[in-house]
Amino acid sequence: MADDDQEKTEQPTAFRLEEARERGQVPRSADLTGTLVMIVFSMTMASSIYAIGAAFAHATRNTLLLSGNGPAPSASLVHWVAEAFQPAWQSLLPCVLAMLVVAVAANLVQTGPTFSMTPLSPDFSRLNPAQGFKKIASMRTLWELLKLCLKLGLIGAFIWSVAGSVSLRVQSAAFASPSSLGLLFRMAYVQVTTWILALLAFVALLDWIYSRREYIQKLRMSRRDMKDEVKRHQGDPDIRSKRKRLISDMLKRSKGLRRVPDADIVLTNPTHVAIAVQYRRRTMRSPIVLSKGSDRMAARIREIAASSGVPCLRSPELARALFRECAIDQVVPGHLHAQLVPIYRWLMSRPGNKVFS
Question: 240-348: which CATH topology?
Answer without folding.
Answer: name from scop (3.40.1690)
